[in-house]
Amino acid sequence: MIALSLALIVQAAPAGSLPAPRWTTPPRFEYPARAVEHGVAGEVIVRCSYRPDQRNCVILKETPSDMGFGREAIRAIMLARPQPDQEGEFDIRANFSLQQTRNSPRP
Predict the structure, then answer these.
(1) Which of 11, 17, 43, 92 is such that its CA lies 20 to 30 A from the CA of 64?
(2) Tens digit of each residue's pLDDT (9 = 90 or more) over 50-69
(3) 49 touches 86 (CB < 8 A)
(4) Exposed/middle/buried for 11, CB within 10 Å: 0-12, 13-18, 19+?
(5) What letters, b where the CB count within 10 A reaches 16 and e where it falls short, cover 41-79?
């Protein structure tokens, strides 16, 4: 019998022409449950505006749009901490992918 396990891979990277933020505490993404259930990968691009007294983020692109990738990206980014000297707009890309691995049982 072969056992299947899923490796959840989420990567954050710069997107577009705007720089990526430098992080004191980087985003910690979680794979959306609905996407895991359906075995779906996704991509999100978020644009955030950082000011000393506020942070605003909007989803520029979410593929697919009905699996919760955008909501999860916003949640993780809002909980992260950019370095304090940063102000302005930044684009952040989050790639969500599932990787199946086959494990043979031990004899």
Answers:
(1) 17
(2) 887 888 999 999 999 999 99
(3) no
(4) exposed
(5) bbbbbbbbebeeeeeebeeebbeeeebbbbebbbbbbee
